[in-house]
Amino acid sequence: MKGILTVPMFAASVFLISSCGNQASVNKDDKTILAEEHTSAAPANNQDSIDLTKLVRAVYKWEDTEGQGNDFDPKEVEGDSLYRGIDWEAYNKRVKKLKATNYFDQRFFDGHKQIAQYLDTALKSGREEWPKDEIPSFGYDQSPWCNCQDAPYENAWDSITVTNLKIDNGQADFSWTWGNTSSYKTKAVKENGAWKISYLEGFKPENFRSKP
Length: 212
Known about the structure:
Elements: H1 28-35, H2 46-65, H3 88-100, H4 106-125, E1 161-168, E2 171-177, E3 184-191, E4 194-200
C-alpha cells in the first residue's frame, strides 16, 4: 500500500467488533468474529458488529491489494524545484476508484477533498512547500490509512480487533488495533441498511498542515 505523500502505504487493518448479546444463526466465519469480540463501551447489535467487521476487512484488503496509490499527488511544473499544487486529474481518478468500492460515505469524501483543496492552495501560495523528490513541509512519513509504515505481517487485515465500539442511531464509533499499544479511530454510518466508512483518523485535515 503506497503512502499519500512519497512513503509506501501498507494498510493492515481488519478488526473484530465488540458486542453484547447472542445471535441464534450465524455462519462459521461470523461465529469466529463473535467469539473473538472484546467488551463494548456500549451495547451493539451482533449483526451490526459482524457487518462492520466485514466492511473494514474489505476496505483494508482492497487498499493493500487493489487500491494502492497516492491520495494527493502533486502537480509538477517543468523547471521548478517545487511542486505547485495538486494534480487534479490524478486526484479525480483516485476518488473515482475509491467511490467504485462502495465502502465509503460522502462524509469521508468531503473531508478527503477538503485536504486536497487546502494542499492545492497552500502549495501555490507558498504556505506549504514540497520540494521534488523530498519530504514536504506538511504531513508525516506514515500512511494515513493506518498511521503506520508497514503491516506487522502478511494479510494482517484478518486479525485486527476493535475496541470502544459505540453504535448510536445508525452511527458507529470505534478504534481498531492489531494487538500492540497503538490504536486507530474510525467511524461508520449506516445507509439503506449497509455500513459505510465516514471517518478515518489519518485523514484529519490538521494532519496535513505544518502550521496551526
